[in-house]
Amino acid sequence: MWERSKVTALASLYTPEHTMFRDTCRRFFEKEVKPHHAQWEEEGLVPKALWRKAGEQGLLCMDVAEEDGGAGADWLHNVILIEEQGRVLATGPGFSLHNDITSPYIRHYATEAQKQRWLPKMISGEMITAIAMTEPGTGSDLQSVRTSARKDGDEYVINGAKTFITNGQNADLIIVVCKTDPGAGAKGTSLICVEGDRAGFKRGRNLEKVGLKAQDTSELFFDNVRVPAENLLGGEGMGFIQLMQQLPQERLVIAVQAIAAIEAALEHTIAYVKERKAFGKPIIDFQNTRFKLAELKTKATVARVFVDECVAKHLRKELDVAGAAMAKYWTTDLQCEVVDECLQLHGGYGYMWEYPIARLYADSRVQKIYGGTNEIMKELIGRTL
Ligand SMILES: Cc1cc2nc3c(=O)[nH]c(=O)nc-3n(C[C@H](O)[C@H](O)[C@H](O)COP(=O)(O)OP(=O)(O)OC[C@H]3O[C@@H](n4cnc5c(N)ncnc54)[C@H](O)[C@@H]3O)c2cc1C
Fold first, then answer.
1. How many CA atoms within 13 Å lie on the side-chain side of 311?
2. Which is the closest atom of ligand 1 to the Cα of 166?
3. Are 225 and 199 a contacting pair, CB within 8 Å?
4. Which residues face 226 on adjacent strands?
5. Is 156 helix (H, G, I), strand (E, B) or coil?
6. What is the rounded distance in angstroms from the CA atom of residue 48 to the CA atom of residue 37?
7. Percent share of the chain, pLDDT over 70
8. What is the structure's pLDDT at 12?
9. Contacts of 116 (CB under 8 A, 6+ apart)
């Protein structure tokens, strides 16, 4: 077996401490998540108690600085957690959204008082977070969001609707992308945190999806929701710049999830084709099977090297917008290709939910859509040429 940790750009960065953290993650996902995931798929969300357990194990917001109550861990810990979650195909818990996508906005743009209000609870799992950018009328075109936040004395009054929001049912704190100056385009965009118990805030349906069955994805409604002015993150009108600064990490996270899914798909498929027989011999003895798997394994290896290189760059703060876009679009396209080919090698069993490859198939498709569609990724890359 090809050992990535010995040859990729991350090889020299792993320490015994990272290995211990991987063991903790593996134990947690094997014991606390894997046995219950099918039930959570039926229920459409994971219980809040799981978040507390993850907090107790130190699996939430690991990279928050020690002075803010965190462990001050490097981002490689976050990567390890995503990989271990991907290994058991547990797409339900929205930990990565909380760890890698929402918490950076608090870490980078919150005041000391805001950090003290929110970060300790985010680390313990008492406070689950979400970020609400997308609206029924606009997704890719973020500048066109219509949710408004009007200043009224020392409060903002928020009106509007969001959709497709991950952690939407469970979230206790939502970073809402809204317009504080609707006439100013991108420059009128601000990020305002809304607690889940504010009057006028309503959660809509837990949306029924093709995959990610255990993950809650929701519509959110804001009807004259009043929040104190100190819930604004950073300055008024800074929202678009803040999003542009943080979205590359979100895209890299999706690439890390993609390569974890690719490797899991191959592992399950290789085991299956050795077991399953047709015409009196194991499926792997057909040249087509071996050639197909040889091609997929090669592509997976190239992808792994590329993703690890992007992670290493990100750790050095050198990954730019185009680089993150390349990683997101190319690995998620590959994920869908690999998973589809692997499902084919399973025959009819591949289409049955009880087989891991079926779950991988259903869960993979959205990777090309969220975090910015792959078409938007090509736009971002194209602009730099
Ligand atoms: C499961 C799931 C979870 C999600 N989680 C969140 C979340 O937590 N928070 C959040 O804010 N959003 C979330 N989203 C929303 C997601 O980010 C959007 O769906 C995505 O950005 C696309 O927006 P849209 O659906 O409005 O599609 P549209 O923008 O309407 O795009 C439709 C099609 O047009 C193409 N298109 C649009 N503009 C261009 C262009 N300029 N050039 C070429 N093609 C273009 C797109 O690529 C796509 O193929 C989630 C979505 C899903 C499905």
1. 30
2. 8
3. yes
4. 157
5. strand
6. 14
7. 98
8. 85
9. 68
